[in-house]
Design a protein that fits this description.
This protein is α/β, with parallel strands linked by helices. It has helices at residues 69-82, 90-100, 109-129, 133-136, 157-169, 186-197, 213-227, 241-250, 266-273, 290-303, 314-320, 334-343, 370-373, and strands at residues 6-7, 10-11, 19-28, 36-37, 42-43, 45-55, 58-65, 144-150, 174-178, 202-206, 229-233, 256-259, 280-283, 307-310, 327-333, 344-345, 354-355, 367-368, 377-379. The two termini are 38 Å apart.
Length: 384
Amino acid sequence: MGSDATAGGTAFGACPVEAVDVHAFEVPTDGPDGTEQDGTLEWDSTTVVLVRVHAGGRTGLGYTYGDVSVASFVRSKLAPVVVGGDVFSPPALWQRMGARIRNAGRPGAGAMALSAVDVALWDLKARLLGLPLVRLLPAHHDRVPVYGSGGFTNYSTDRLTGQLAAWVEQGIGRVKLKTSREPERDPQRLTAVRGAIGTEPELFTDANGALGRKEALYWARRFHEEWDVRWFEEPVASADLEGLRLLRDRGPERLDIAAGEYAFTPQDFVNLVDGPAVDCLQADVTRCGGITGVLEVAGLSAAQHLDLSAHCAPAVSAHAFCAVRRLRHLEYFHDHVRVEQLLFDGTLPPVGGALRPDTGRPGLGLDVKWADAEPYRVQGTRPS
């Protein structure tokens, strides 16, 4: 198709990015006394950094979950690189942004900033072409299975069991709780959860790196033998590759060891699959380089014969991970579901235990609810 051909009323020729604007919103948690806990962290809010990219009379949006400083990173380092670039070539701009932040720091905040911009570019490209994002990507699937995720360590037993049982009642056949902050409490918590959800749903646990290697191996065996746990996420710190390999090699055969949510660069994922250190790889589209980053990780997982699971950000992940051949599932995380429903029109409810992208709306299918978001603003200015 030549450069004069059109789709959705927009020519396929170069379309320069005209402007980038950045916003940040801090949404309090709804946990006990305003806090939530996992094995290694306590928090009282979730911060969303929202990026909008403008070209050809349309606007694309992307976002990440991180510190408000990520917004400043986008403005100072990435916006100048993207403006003037061709919105129809997100991977080329992705590479240019990566080069720009080499000295400023690619892992962590840099990768989160890059991810948000990359998602916005893909969203804008799809909108300009009049396509839902899933149709623009090399999709292998039309839906992404989910598992309910929450079960924070400071929840009461009633709230813990009620939350996980509610997901099962909605048709979600996999649920996860946080563990290992106070390991001695976990048997009671797991017994209560298994009693509430029954024997059929799959039960997952997440230690968030709270345990030592042998301690984690002990709990891996107990989790599986006593409560039929099938997924043990970050039993040790994700940087402890030898510890992850120990758990993978010596743990129960039907208990998958998972990590990858804190992988920011391609090499981070290579390190996890070298060995390998996990049974199932995880990737977060808002941390690993956006849509372009997910496509790279998807190729690596397929080449290594490992499934890939999406970490959180369901409104974006529902599109992005349809393009993952070795797709396992998506973490339908309580905090992100709350925040995305607050900030955006067009979020997707699970149907039959999966999220199916809305093919009747262009791009991600999201629109910002500015009036609802405004009370939570901590950076940027509401568009006029």
